[in-house]
Structure formats: structure tokens, C-alpha cells
Amino acid sequence: MTHDSFSTRTMQGFTLIELMLATLMATLLVAGALRLLVHGRIAWQTTENVATLEERAAFALIALEHDIRLAGYWGQHSDGHSISMGPQVAARCGGRDASRWALDLVSAVQADNNTFTLPCRPASGHVANTDTLTVRHASQLTALPDKGRIQLYTNHQGGVVSQSGIAGTTTTGIEETYNVEVHAWHLVRKSSEAGLPALRRLTLVDGGEIQSQEIIPGVENFQVTLGIDRDDDGMVDGFVNPDATAEAPIMAVRYWLLLRSAAPEPGHIDSGPWHSIDTNAAMPLRPDDGYRRVAIERTVWLRNLAYR
Fold first, then answer.
1. Reduced to 3 states, what is the DSSP secondary structure of residue 230?
2. Is residue 89 part of a domain?
3. Is residue 7 in some structural domain?
4. Contact in structure between 122 and 188 (CB atoms under 8 Å)
5. Burial letters for 204-230: b for 16+ Cβ neighbours within 10 Å, e otherwise?
6. 18 in any annotated domain
7. What is the DSSP letter of 76?
8. How far apart are CA 221 and CA 132, in angstroms?
9. How many Cβ atoms are within 10 Å of 134's Cβ, its own excluded?
10. Which domain holds residue 69?
């Protein structure tokens, strides 16, 4: 009797109310865990986006600054007027002659305001209403004579540009050899990462060819202003858009980039406004989307000014 009663009691299960309460508690626990997982994923994505944007911004700043600081450097001097062109020196872009643009060594810095006039049109198209910046200089280090490469043979008085690969000499002595470097920075609509624009540059490479290189994806706006000296007193009188220099000497370059994350971020709305340095911009940028952005700006003073 006692044994049968014990067996009956031990075989009893949960009541309906107990089962419902257990199910509710399990559901709440799972929902809480999922909520934590979602918040954790969003936090991770935010951190990842911020880190990627900051890393790319730092890379773009350094690459541009290094190039601009060398503008107008011609080995042993900084006077592009004293450099002559040797015979049969030619730069080409996709089979088209681009020598006049590439080898304008008097103009160490050139820029376009909200337009694209570079000799090589990007296959994916230029990003509308963004600037371009062209920088010309000699390589930072001397080079060995290299037939086919456009090089500068220079001394303290001047120099000559050649593709012969034969070191030049003058009455004043043996000249040092440098590679001629030309970089044209601009934005294109497509990059190596789907859905992102990119900062690219046209670069003078071996054989006198102009090559297009992707520098960093995710740059969606690029603006340039130039610090000019209107009265030749060695002081910057103001920063203007590239089409407003009135041929005044350029003493500094200020550039501004806006970078965008690769994917929209859950819960994030970027309504701006982003104020660029373009002096005639009609209004600030208001994206109104879920992408995270970061803007960077830097001013670089030119070191190699011939008229100084």
C-alpha cells in the first residue's frame, strides 16, 4: 500500500500552470539572450566601422601630405623653369599623348574645382562635384639611369628630362638622377569594395605610361582649396577654390575628405550636416542614411617654392 502510493506520486509530471510558467521563463531568457546578442553585434559593427574609417582616413591623410610636401622638388633645386625637355620624351595614357599635362614641371600643383580635366577618364566615372589635385616633383631619393622611364638629370643650376637612360653631364659637372613623379588625385564611383567610391590617383610609371591606381575605398567627397600669395610678400593671403587663384603663387594646399562605411549601421542615421571647405558650396551635405561617416581636413605648406 505504501509502496504503490509512493510510485504514483513519483510518476506525476508538471501541472499545466507549471509548464506554462516554465515556458514563459525560458522564452524570456532566450529573448534576453537574443537582445544581448543583437546589441553586442551592433556594438561590434559600430566599433569595426569606426576603426576602419579612422584607419583609412589616416592612410589617406599621410599619402596626400607626403606627396604635397614634395611638390616642386627637383633634386638639387626647386625651379621648374630651369628644366629643359630632352628629345622624344613622351607620357601616354591609354595610347593617347599626355606629355603636355604630365610634364608641366613649372606647375608643381594644379587642381580642378568640381570638375574633371585629367587626361585619363576613369572607367567607372568621376564622382560629380568633387575636386582633383595634381602634384609634380622628383623622386625623394636619387635613382639609377633607367631607359624608358622619364627621369630628371639635375644639378644646382637646372636640369634636363630624358628617357634615354644615359646619365647627363653639363659644364658644371655630373648631374644627379631622379625619377619624375606625377600624381593626380581624384574620386571614382566604383572601387574594389562593392558599393563604395574610391580615392584613386593617376601615376607616371615606367615607359612613360600613366597608370590608374586605387589608393583607398570609401572616400565619397574630396575638396581642395589653395593658399595663394596675391602680393608676393611670402604670406598666404587666403584660401580659394582651384578656379579662383588668378595665377597667384600657390603656397599651401588644404584638402578635405569625407569617408563612408561599407554598409549601413543598424539604428544609425547620418543626417549631417557635413560642411566641406569648398568656398562656393551651395549647402552642407545631408546624407540622411544609415552609413557612418568621418570627415578629415589638413593644410600642407609647400616647401619648394622657386620664387623664394
1. coil
2. yes
3. no
4. yes
5. bbeebbbebeebbbbbbbbbbbbbbbe
6. no
7. S
8. 11
9. 23
10. 40-301
